[in-house]
């Protein structure tokens, strides 16, 4: 036993390292990399760090992460340490199974190849890739980077090269295999994230397409109501059909913003929507001066639809009733406040009739619709004085 201990001590001295501290250092580096692999989603940074830590833990001159590309049977250097940085992204032939990397990838097993060199052979079996390996390298250790999905594919190879006097052993191979396992998990997560992003993008496109079709369908319905209004034999029926068409067109406008919008799914830029809505109402009210000032705010379509309908009803009422002898201005404003939104619609007309009930317990359909929409928004409607005309103010809390 004493002789075995002396031989081991001599071997450690010959390798220029003390075995226990060397292995403890490897375990510490592997643990540090495992923590990083759990915390980062940046695959390129992770692969770069893997090559650095593997080279440090093995005392290797070079270390690289090779990704296999099936379409042309080649490796791509994804990260490297000890080689020129501009080699990242370059191709390495994968067809020469006399190189340790190609052999490890094909067999799915680790490879220890000590005492070889670039262009030379170890008993006719292995050599380092000529033109890539720097002079003086003569040892290699390789492990495949496996993916754990059902296809049992290999992502590529993790490879380290060493110089004369420092060969690699099975424990070094196991150290490298630990890194390869963590890299495989990170690659799978990265690929899963990419697939999820693709699926979400596809879902967004489908939703936008649906909103586009809903907008077109509602536009057709609004157009049909307008056509029917023209043929109506009574003013009451004509006005009812025109109002219904305007309400449907307002909902269509929200869906138009949904399919054209760049915001997250189901969200609408309220300021843009209100300005476009008021511009469309202006087309139906020639002679009146309709204007809109709105702070930018992205809200859900579920809130945008009732807000748009309230604006439609209040502006339409002002156009119809505020100026019985002519035309005049109607202003819409939206302010974003710490506690929610403040929507105001104001005209400079004859004002509200005496005894007007702000609670909207009125007989007209338009006022009933406004009351229902305000309840849906959990809002509070008030009337402000201090000037000519009617001034409606709606406070809307935001989730």
From TrEMBL:
Q: Which reaction does it catalyse?
A: ATP + protein L-histidine = ADP + protein N-phospho-L-histidine
What InterPro entries does UniProt report for this protein, alphabetically?
GAF, GAF-like_dom_sf, HATPase_C_sf, HATPase_dom, His_kinase_dom, Sig_transdc_His_kin-like_C, Sig_transdc_His_kin_sub2_dim/P, Sig_transdc_His_kinase_HWE
Record key words, sorted? ATP-binding, Kinase, Nucleotide-binding, Phosphoprotein, Transferase
Enzyme superclass (EC): transferase
Domain of life of the source: Bacteria
Q: What is its EC number?
A: 2.7.13.3
Output one GO MF annotation: protein histidine kinase activity
Q: Which residues form the Histidine kinase domain?
A: 209-399
Enumerate the PANTHER family for this protein. Answer: ETHYLENE RESPONSE SENSOR PROTEIN (PTHR41523:SF8), TWO-COMPONENT SYSTEM SENSOR PROTEIN (PTHR41523)
Q: What is this protein called?
A: histidine kinase
Q: Which organism is it from?
A: Methylobacterium tarhaniae
């Amino acid at each position: 036993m004493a002789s075995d201990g002396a031989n081991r001590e001599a071997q450690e001295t010959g390798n220029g390292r003390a075995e226990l501290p060397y292995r403890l250092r490897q375990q510490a580096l592997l643990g540090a990399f495992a923590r990083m692999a759990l915390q980062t989603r940046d695959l390129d940074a992770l692969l770069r760090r893997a090559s650095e830590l593997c080279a440090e833990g093995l005392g290797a001159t070079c270390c690289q992460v090779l990704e296999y590309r099936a379409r042309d049977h080649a490796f791509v250097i994804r990260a490297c340490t000890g080689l020129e940085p501009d080699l990242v992204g370059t191709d390495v032939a994968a067809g020469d199974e006399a190189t340790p990397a190609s052999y490890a990838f094909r067999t799915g097993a680790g490879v220890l190849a000590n005492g070889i060199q670039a262009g030379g052979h170890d008993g006719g079996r292995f050599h380092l890739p000529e033109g890539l390996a720097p002079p003086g390298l003569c040892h290699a250790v390789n492990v495949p980077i496996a993916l754990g999905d059902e296809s049992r594919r290999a992502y590529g190879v993790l490879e380290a090269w060493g110089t004369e006097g420092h060969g690699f052993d099975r424990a070094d191979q196991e150290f490298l295999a630990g890194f390869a396992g963590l890299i495989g998990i990170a690659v799978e997560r990265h690929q899963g994230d990419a697939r999820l992003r693709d699926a979400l993008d596809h879902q967004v496109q489908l939703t936008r397409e649906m909103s586009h079709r809903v907008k077109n369908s509602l536009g057709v319905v609004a157009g049909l109501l307008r056509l029917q209004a023209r043929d109506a034999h009574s003013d009451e029926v004509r006005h009812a059909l025109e109002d219904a068409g305007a309400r449907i067109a307002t909902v269509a406008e929200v869906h138009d913003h949904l399919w054209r919008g760049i915001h997250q799914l189901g969200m609408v830029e309220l300021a843009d929507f209100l300005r476009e809505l008021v511009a469309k109402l202006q087309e139906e009210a020639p002679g009146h001066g309709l204007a809109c000032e709105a702070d930018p705010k992205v809200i859900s379509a579920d809130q945008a639809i009732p807000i748009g309908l309230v604006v439609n009803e209040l502006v339409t009422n002002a156009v119809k009733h505020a100026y019985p002898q002519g035309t005049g201005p109607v202003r819409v404003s939206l302010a974003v406040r710490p506690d929610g939104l403040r929507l105001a619609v104001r005209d400079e007309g004859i004002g509200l009739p005496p005894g007007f009930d702000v609670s909207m317990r009125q007989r007209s359909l338009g006022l009933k619709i406004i009351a229902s929409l305000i309840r849906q928004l959990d809002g509070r409607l008030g009337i402000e004085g201090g000037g000519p005309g009617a001034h409606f103010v709606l406070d809307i809390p935001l989730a």
